[in-house]
Amino acid sequence: MPANRFNGQTDYGVGIGLRVPHYAHILSRKPTVDWFEIISENFMVDGGRPLELLDKILEQYRVVQHGVSMYFGSADKPDREHLKRLKALVKRTKTPWLSDHLCWGSVDGTYTHDLLPMPYTFGAARRTAEKIRQIRDFLEVPICVENVSSYAEFHVSEMTEWEFLSEVVELADCGILLDVNNIYVSSKNHGFDPYDYVNNVPHKRVGQMHVAGHTKFEKYILDTHDHPVLDPVWKLYAHATRTCGVTATLLEWDDKIPSFDEVHNEALKANEFIDGAKKAVV
Amino acid sequence: MKLPPKHAPSRIGSTGELRAFQRMMATAIVRPLTAGDGMQPRWIDGRAMEKVAAEFVSPNDRLSSFERLQLYNKMYWFRLFDAIRDDCPGLVAALGEQAFVRLSQAYLEHCPSRSFTLRNLCSRLERFIVENPSITAPRTALASEIARFEWAQTVAFDGESLPVVDAALLARTPPSRLRLGLQPYVTLLALRFPVDSFLVRVKRRDALRSEASNTPDSDAVRRKVRRAALPRPSRTFVAVHRHHNRLFHKRLDPAAFRILEALQGGATLTRAVSAAGPAVRPRQVRTWFKTWMALGWFCAPGNKSGRKASLL
């Protein structure tokens, strides 16, 4: 299901994250790229160079917004200033959908600037879904929620992470940004089968996928986004595209960022698996 | 952030229970690290942290509850230290690494982030330095001015830009009735140290913000702040601003500073110019205004967006 109501009925192909080291290359060479994902917070400002650059990118490319601080799972009410700025940016970019994480990161108005894992309870799912609905109604744009990579689990949880994700998106009637790398990282950190995760989320709600690199340490895996995508993640991605259908895919590379071409070529490897998934359907 | 409950909730059905759980975990995450960059061994009430972590975080076959929680505790501090370091290279250069980390930790403990964006993290830093002089002594005065300057750079970089006043309107309005505002991205600074020259030597990274996901930033380890000789006291007047979306700072004559300050304070053009003092020649004032107009510094008074560009 390449196009669905969760990604604004689009069929965007394979994109990469718009990152500062690549601006000069993109603006001068104008490479062919299916789409760029921007981090909304980097452009939720009043003026200056960030918006000037964004406008230049928007003249040439399709852009989708991805947020890192909406904290759908925080008990706090949505921040009005945040929402107003986000809505202004949505109008500017005309993003067909918008994504942020299924996590929390602030409490009592204090921000940790991290994507903290949720306690997987029915009560937390209800509260989170309610908040997603409120935010979507205000922003008037489809929302996809992304599964985060995590390093801790909680005794209080009543279900698996994928059950929690499914519960939230069904209650909120929103989409999923399925981060295949995050599933893999968390599966190693928490000891579950990543294929169980992919097999058990509502496939029809997947509006976008993420792939990325990670780093292995002795006792855990860290979601570093500073490497090419590792083979097990590509395999999981291949399975996800076969299972959920081919959908907008994005490579995240946020640290030790190599040349534009290297990042883009890494992202385009996804096409190999997309072709495989299409053939499997035929 | 309000105090966490004595024990993490044993179930989370309501928003209140979710909030209690989040207060518990957030309190653990934002507590300062030990000298060895580990999580503190004792909880806020003196109990062993291992026991407290085990109350709500599940262990796995490789990591204890304490160790899993510690990962988040460490990432919080490293991420926020890096964010301050990125925005305040002058402070790092002036204070040195150890004192900078001591200041950052104290600042974040007293003024944790209240904004969704790291862009605003240093907005209260100058005030904190002034109100807590012992942390940066004996360089408090210099440190506070650097923090002020570096925050002004953040504002100049991505602050709001309002419509520039129309020169024709200026020409036909009597100076005794004309009031002008300064662009929100322009900050006037009267300094005791030539912080501008110092920062040129340190060289601030004129870079776009690049917050992305929750990935740890390994660049921080590689980034080195250039050392520079500390400036000697010298009265300095500066406007931090942008032009064609590039950061600049402009030295101002004290009389020119007084004019701009008076305009920003709501004075009419006549009163503002008189603030410059009798020694300043009209020709000099006209030259200054010509430059400021060319830089696009003047907007309608009030410095708030959304109002009409009336000059009266």
Note down, in words, how this protein is organized.
- The complex is a heterodimer of chains A (282) and B (312).
- The radius of gyration of chain A is 18 Å and the shape is globular.
- Chain A has helices spanning 23-29, 49-60, 80-93, 122-139, 161-172, 180-190, 194-199, 231-244, 260-268, 270-281, and strands spanning 14-17, 36-39, 63-66, 98-101, 104-107, 110-116, 143-146, 153-154, 175-179, 206-212, 215-216, 221-222, 249-252.
- Chain A has one domain: Alpha-Beta Barrel (TIM Barrel).
- Chain A is α/β, with parallel strands linked by helices and 282 residues long.
- Helices cover 41% and strands 19% of the residues of chain A.
- Chain B is mostly helical and 312 residues long.
- Chain B has helices at residues 15-30, 49-56, 65-87, 89-95, 97-110, 125-131, 133-136, 140-158, 167-172, 195-202, 219-222, 254-264, 269-275, 282-294; strands at residues 57-58, 181-182, 187-191, 236-243, 246-251, 298-299.
- In chain B, the strands form two sheets. Chain B has a three-stranded antiparallel β-sheet with strand order 3-4-5, sandwiched between helices. Chain B has a two-stranded antiparallel sheet with strand order 2-6.
- The radius of gyration of chain B is 24 Å and the shape is elongated.
- Chain B starts with 14 loop residues before the first helix and ends in a 13-residue tail after the last strand.
- Strand 8 of chain A pairs antiparallel with strand 1 (57-58) of chain B.
